[in-house]
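Troubleshooting log. The previous structure file for this entry was overwritten by mistake, so regenerating from the original sequence record. Sequence copied from the archived sheet and checked twice against the printout by T.R.
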Amino acid sequence: HEVEYSDDVTVTYSDDAAVEKAGMSGDIEQGELPYQFAASNVDSLDIDIDIGSVNVLPSEDENIYVRLNGGDGTCELKNGVLTLSHIYSDNIEIMVPENHRFKTIDIDGNSGSFSAETLRADGQVSLEIDTGDISVFNLEAGSAVASAEIGGIWVENSRVTGDIVLEADAGSIE
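Regenerated output below.
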């Protein structure tokens, strides 16, 4: 299935997921790309990972796609903020147009990893993982914070106009 919405929407993922919007529902097979958002409607990205890996990859068009491979979680676009929360998944893929700039990006994770080929934000990019690794290639931001209590941080090709803070309590920073 491919489901496209032009306004605010909340989608709950589960092993027997359904799309819910204004009384509309339908079964969704995990691993497909049913969650499509016009990038022009998405100003900020907010992800809360309980367990799992998030990979941000380039989109081939001007849309943002979210794919959950196993597990469950909630995806919501409201007032320009794309929020993924209560994520328990093997792998979450978020495809973003390479030229898209968010206002802010906030990633908070308990156990898992975060990787991105390209991240662009006019404001702050905050990447915090308790146990796991953070890898970002091509980071552009107004300011950036990356923190891993147990795990490593790899950042390449970064251009941050303001402050940048990298912290790894038990791991490497490269």
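Residues 1-30 have pLDDT under 50 and may be disordered. Archived copy saved in two places this time.
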